[in-house]
C-alpha cells in the first residue's frame, strides 16, 4: 500500500489538497493517508473531511510525527513553524523597514528562515530515521532555504514545490494563443526569483510574438505585472516578484491577520458541516496544490503521464536551485538548461550570493552572518542594514 503523509495536516487549508486529489483517479485508489498535526480537535475535523472526500483511502490522524512518517512513500511537508504569529512578526519587521512583507524574500524572509531552521532540522532527523527513501514534497517557506536544510540533512529525494513558474508558463501560452504543450521553455532560478527564457514553438523563437502581444490593451498588465520593456531588456520573462527586486516600488500588505480570519472561519464551517468544502477557504487562492503538489503525487505514483515542471533541489551543502525536471513513475530527471541571457545570468549570480548568505546565517546564527545576509539583500538599502540587524532576533 502506498502511503502519503502530511506534516501540518491539521490546517483547514489542507481540504483544498483533498479536493484536488479527488478530481483525479487517485480518488479511487486504496492508499493510506496519514495526517500529522498538534491541534487534536483541528486534526479530527480535517480527517473527517478527508474520509468523506477520499472514500477509498485508509485515513489516519496522529499528533506523533514518527508514527505519521513511518515507512511513508511520499511526505507533504507543510508545517508552519512558529504559526501565523511568527508570520505576523515577519510582516511587522518588513513594515518597519518599508519593504516587502513576504515570508520568502527580504528581511522578513531572513527572519522566517532563522525561525524555521530548528523545526525543519528536527523534522529531517525523524524523516531520516522513519522514511529515508520517501519523496519529500516541501512547501515550507522560505522554500529555498527549507529545501536546502532538508537536503543538507541527507534527504536527497526532497523537492521544494512552487507553482509560480508553471503558472507563468501558462499565462505566456495564453497570451501567445498556443497550448501549454506547444510552448517550450528553459528556466533558471531560485524560489520566487526565476526567469523563463528561450521561449519557442517548434523551431520558432516566440519572444518577439510575446512582446507584440503585450502591446495589446488587453495585456496592459503584462505577464504578472511585468511589462514588455523589461522582458525585452532581459530577453526573458521573470517571475512576478522581480518587479520588487528590480527596484520598482510596490506596497503589498501583510496577510497573516487575513489568513487567521479565513482559517478560523473554515474551522467553524467544518464543525457545522464536516463533509462540506468550507466556502470561506475560497478567499485564499492555493494554486500550488492544483498545479504543483497533486500533479507531482500523481506522476510519482504512476497515475499521470510524465510531467515536466520546476522543483527546488538541494545538495549536501549547496543552496537549493529551482530546476526544470521530468517526473515519470518515481523517476526524476533533471533537465540541463541552455545558457541564460547575459542579464539573467548576472541577476542569478546576485541572487545566489544572497541565498548562500541566508543559508549560512541559519546555520551559524551569529549577528555577523545576519548582517552579511542583509547587505546582499536586493530589497534593502545600505542605510537599512544595521536597523534591520537590530530588529532581527538571532
TrEMBL record:
The keyword Manganese applies. InterPro entries: Glyco_hydro_4, Lactate_DH/Glyco_Ohase_4_C, NAD(P)-bd_dom_sf. SUPFAM superfamilies: LDH C-terminal domain-like (SSF56327), NAD(P)-binding Rossmann-fold domains (SSF51735). The keyword Manganese applies. Keywords: Manganese, Metal-binding, NAD. Pfam families: Glyco_hydro_4. Belongs to the glycosyl hydrolase 4 family. This is 6-phospho-beta-glucosidase. It comes from Candidatus Burkholderia pumila.
Amino acid at each position: 500500500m502506498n502511503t502519503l503523509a502530511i506534516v501540518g495536516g491539521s490546517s483547514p487549508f489542507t481540504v483544498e489538497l483533498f479536493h484536488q486529489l479527488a478530481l483525479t483517479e487517485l480518488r479511487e485508489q486504496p492508499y493510506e493517508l496519514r495526517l500529522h498535526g498538534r491541534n487534536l480537535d483541528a486534526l479530527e475535523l480535517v480527517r473527517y473531511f478527508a474520509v468523506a472526500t477520499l472514500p477509498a483511502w485508509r485515513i489516519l490522524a496522529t499528533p506523533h510525527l514518527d508514527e505519521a512518517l513511518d515507512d511513508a512513500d511520499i511526505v507533504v511537508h507543510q508545517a508552519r513553524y512558529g504559526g501565523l504569529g511568527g508570520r505576523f512578526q515577519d510582516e511587522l519587521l518588513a513594515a518597519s523597514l518599508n519593504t516587502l512583507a513576504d515570508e520568502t524574500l527580504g528581511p522578513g524572509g531572513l527572519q522566517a528562515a532563522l525561525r524555521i531552521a530548528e523545526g525543519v532540522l528536527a523534522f529531517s532527523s525523524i524523516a531520516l530515521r522513519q522514511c529515508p527513501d520517501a519523496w519529500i514534497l516541501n512547501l515550507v517557506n522560505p522554500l529555498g532555504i527549507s529545501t536546502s536544510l532538508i537536503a543538507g540533512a541527507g534527504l536527497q529525494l526532497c523537492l521544494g514545490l512552487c507553482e509560480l513558474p508553471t503558472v507563468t508558463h501558462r499565462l505566456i501560452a495564453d497570451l501567445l494563443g498556443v497550448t501549454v504543450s506547444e510552448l517550450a521553455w528553459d528556466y533558471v532560478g531560485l524560489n520566487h526569483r526565476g526567469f523563463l527564457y528561450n521561449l519557442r514553438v517548434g523551431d520558432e523563437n516566440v519572444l518577439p510574438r510575446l512582446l507584440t502581444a503585450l502591446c495589446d490593451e488587453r495585456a496592459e498588465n503584462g505577464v504578472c505585472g511585468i511589462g514588455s520593456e523589461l522582458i525585452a531588456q532581459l530577453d526573458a520573462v521573470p517571475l512576478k516578484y522581480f518587479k520588487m527586486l528590480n527596484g520598482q516600488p510596490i506596497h503589498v500588505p501583510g496577510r497573516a491577520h487575513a489568513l487567521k480570519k479565513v482559517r478560523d472561519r473554515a474551522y467553524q464551517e467544518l464543525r457545522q458541516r464536516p463533509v462540506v468544502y468550507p466556502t470561506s477557504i475560497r478567499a485564499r487562492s492555493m494554486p500550488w496544490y492544483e498545479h504543483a503538489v497533486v500533479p507531482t503525487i500523481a506522476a510519482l505514483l504512476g497515475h499521470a503521464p510524465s510531467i515536466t515542471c520546476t522543483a527546488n533541489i538541494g545538495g549536501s551543502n549547496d543552496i537549493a536551485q529551482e530546476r526544470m525536471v521530468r517526473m515519470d513513475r518515481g523517476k526524476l530527471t533533471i533537465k540541463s538548461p541552455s545558457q541564460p541571457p547575459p542579464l539573467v545570468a548576472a541577476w542569478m549570480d546576485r541572487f545566489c550570493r544572497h541565498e548562500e548568505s541566508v543559508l549560512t546565517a541559519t546555520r551559524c546564527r551569529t549577528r555577523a552572518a545576519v548582517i552579511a545576509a542583509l547587505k546582499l539583500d536586493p530589497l534593502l538599502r545600505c542605510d537599512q542594514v544595521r536597523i534591520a540587524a537590530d530588529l532581527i532576533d538571532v
